[in-house]
Write a sequence for this structure.
């Protein structure tokens, strides 16, 4: 196919896509061109560095279907970022910007606004485009939290401020948090959004307070970076524990934003009251809006998540395969997705059908593996250390029993994702004791290799 014919077809495909894609999605398609077509594959270039990843992950099937609709034939495509094409585009953009606004059509103004939104997402907001409300699978475990997140996205700082989302790792807290930012950017483009992980915030603060002639300037720039926003998203706030300077900065940032009626969203693996060393004034700030928990998904939700993953990739997967994976990966969404990705990758590389036989071969799980309970963890840990579960529940202060119980508490939280209240109820202990046990083991594992190896070995044994 000659280049002119390739360009003509791509122009028709783009026109058709304009009618089927929402505005924010079509923006990824606008600034693209074709350099040729070989072996039924169109070679497409773009001016946006993120576009190849986004288009392949999100709109690949839609584009393939549109090629079929326009030409009646099956075409594939590749897409890459082209630096020279991007430079030419920037020159043309400057010329366009010099045009009086009255000469710009309503459509041109709309497209320009959407491009600005994309620029904010890439360079300022620090968001991952795959985390959207549209691809979050809602179950009983997350229904209330999802509704709150949508309300906050549509009405920032109106009612639920701050929004505090908590739960064990891998359940979708980050997904919902970033979905809020994604929605705000594309529906309220005048608002500034910024997402940051607490560990990254701490590292930035440390760099800003290091000695130097421009220390004051760096600190002021650091503060304004997080206070001159409309929506601040802070992930994994539990890592703030025992970092006094960071807690002080967070407190003043919160006060600054709340006083200016700006929205704050926080995620954590635990409640504010469970974060060691958190000052009362900061705890009260975290709790003043609304707190909501995400729990592990039930079987039906896990199956729906797997079906959604396959649909996004345009992969066929039957219920039996989804059922097998969902029955064997029960603790969180992250490990569920990891299992699916492993099977999907193997199917792709080996050109095999994604079915239950392949899943069994790749994952090597035992069928109908039941969810691990706190009791299961306690029993296995007790056997490992040569004590009994009854010892764990007794008031005994024997060092051997105490150490073993602390490990059991740590693994109960890590493996089952149950709350500290439920763990405390099982062990007949007080809630603060469970918190202390968990944090002590987590901290000691960093410096004690033998403990770390023992805990990892136990965890592997418990999970089977």
């Amino acid at each position: 196919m000659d280049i002119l014919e390739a360009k003509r077809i791509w122009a028709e495909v783009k026109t058709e896509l304009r009618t089927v894609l929402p505005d924010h999605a079509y923006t990824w398609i606008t600034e693209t061109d074709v350099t040729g077509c070989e072996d039924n594959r169109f070679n497409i270039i773009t001016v946006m560095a993120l576009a190849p990843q986004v288009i392949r992950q999100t709109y690949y099937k839609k584009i393939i279907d549109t090629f079929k609709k326009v030409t009646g034939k099956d075409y594939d495509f590749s897409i890459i970022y082209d630096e020279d094409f991007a430079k030419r585009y920037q020159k043309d953009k400057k010329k366009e910007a010099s045009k009086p606004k009255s000469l710009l059509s309503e459509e041109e103004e709309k497209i320009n606004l959407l491009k600005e939104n994309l620029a904010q997402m890439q360079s300022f907001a620090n968001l991952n485009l795959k985390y959207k409300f549209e691809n979050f699978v809602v179950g009983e475990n997350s229904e209330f939290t999802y509704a709150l997140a949508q309300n906050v996205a549509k009405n920032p700082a109106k009612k639920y401020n701050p929004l505090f989302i908590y739960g064990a790792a891998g359940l979708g807290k980050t997904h919902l948090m970033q979905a809020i930012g994604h929605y705000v950017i594309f529906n309220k483009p005048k608002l500034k959004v910024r997402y940051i992980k607490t560990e990254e915030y701490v590292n930035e603060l440390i760099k800003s307070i290091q000695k130097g002639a421009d220390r004051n300037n760096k600190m002021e720039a650091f503060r304004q970076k997080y206070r001159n926003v409309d929506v601040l998203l802070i992930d994994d706030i539990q890592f703030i524990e025992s970092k006094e300077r960071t807690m002080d900065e967070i407190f003043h940032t919160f006060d600054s934003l709340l006083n200016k009626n700006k929205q704050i969203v926080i995620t954590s693996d635990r409640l504010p009251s469970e974060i060691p060393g958190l000052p009362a004034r900061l705890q009260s700030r975290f709790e003043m809006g609304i707190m909501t928990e995400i729990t592990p998904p039930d079987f039906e939700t896990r199956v729906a998540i797997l079906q959604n993953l396959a649909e996004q990739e345009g992969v066929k997967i039957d219920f039996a395969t989804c059922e097998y994976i969902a029955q064997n990966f029960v603790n969180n969404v992250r490990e569920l997705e990891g299992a699916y990705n492993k099977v999907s990758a193997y199917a792709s590389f080996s050109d095999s059908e994604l079915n239950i036989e392949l899943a069994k071969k790749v994952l090597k799980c035992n069928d109908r593996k039941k969810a691990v309970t706190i009791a299961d963890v306690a029993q296995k840990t007790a056997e490992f250390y040569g004590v009994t579960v009854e010892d764990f529940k007794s008031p005994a202060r024997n060092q051997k029993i105490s150490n073993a119980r602390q490990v059991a508490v740590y693994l109960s939280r890590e493996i089952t994702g149950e709350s500290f209240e439920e763990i405390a109820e099982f062990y007949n202990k007080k809630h603060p004791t469970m918190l202390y046990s968990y944090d002590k083991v987590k901290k000691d594992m960093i410096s004690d290799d033998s403990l770390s190896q023992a805990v990892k070995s136990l965890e592997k044994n418990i999970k089977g």
Remarks:
- The chain has four domains: 3-90, 133-293, 299-363, 374-463.
- The longest strand covers residues 32-38.
- The chain is about 60% helix and 10% strand.
- The longest helix spans residues 51-71.
